[in-house]
Amino acid sequence: MIETYLNFVKNYPLLSSAVQIGILGTIGELIAVRIRMKQWYIFGPGPGRLLLKVLVWAFLGITFKYAFTGFFAYVDTIIEKGWWFQITKGSFFYALSVSFFANIIYGPVFVTFHRFTDNKIEGKEMDWNSLQKAWWSLVWFWIPAMTTVFILPKHLQIGLLSLWNIALGIMLGYFAVKSQNSTK
């Protein structure tokens, strides 16, 4: 089973990114909604909205794979130009640097696009205050989480990122419940 997974992620990096993020990103979102609403909610009647959510997550999974490649090259280039600290590839600080730049440059675009597509799928208006809170998750959650992702070999990075999506879904669900309880 492990060998099949490893072969899949090594031989089909874009497809495996789409599948992993499509499935596990959606599961993380479903868990967050489940915790918040105290019941399972599949985004409306029929499978249509759920399928759209999976497809958006899958598309984002492909963009993650491209972004990861690009931000490793970005950090390499700014180190080479002397615009960043001289750090060793594969080190904690190298992974932290890639995570930092990926989250401050790509992160806000990803979060905004994802929120926009979610709202369109669910027929909601854009909540800009909520979007600002989501942007803050890039700092308090995603920079540290993706630092651990970028320490791993490239073929395992999307898998851990997918699991972090579930962890964030659980945390956001509990934060929403806590926030609802404190306003009562």
What would you say this structure looks like, in words?
By secondary structure, the protein is mainly alpha-helical. The chain has one domain (2-182). It has helices at residues 2-11, 13-37, 48-80, 92-122, 128-151, 154-182. Helix 2 runs parallel beside helix 6 (154-182), helix 4 runs antiparallel to helix 5 (128-151) and helix 5 runs antiparallel to helix 6 (154-182). The longest helix has 33 residues, at 48-80. The mean pLDDT is 94.
List the helices and strands and how they pair.
Layout: H1 2-11, H2 13-37, H3 48-80, H4 92-122, H5 128-151, H6 154-182
Keywords: Membrane, Transmembrane, Transmembrane helix
Transmembrane segments: 12-33, 54-72, 92-113, 134-152, 158-177
Protein name: Mpv17 / PMP22 family protein
Run of helices and strands: HHHHHH
Intertermini distance: 48 Å
Provide the low-confidence segments as ranges.
none
Largest sheet: none
Q: Mean pLDDT, as a whole number?
A: 94
What percent of residues are in strands?
under 5%
User: Number of DSSP strands?
Assistant: 0
Helix and strand composition category: mainly alpha
Helix fraction by DSSP (H/I, runs of at least 4): over 70%
- C-alpha Rg (nearest Å): 17 Å
What is the number of independent domains? 1
Q: Indicate the overall shape.
A: globular
Number of helices: 6
Organism: Zobellia uliginosa
Transmembrane segments: 12-33, 54-72, 92-113, 134-152, 158-177
Protein name: Mpv17 / PMP22 family protein
Keywords: Membrane, Transmembrane, Transmembrane helix
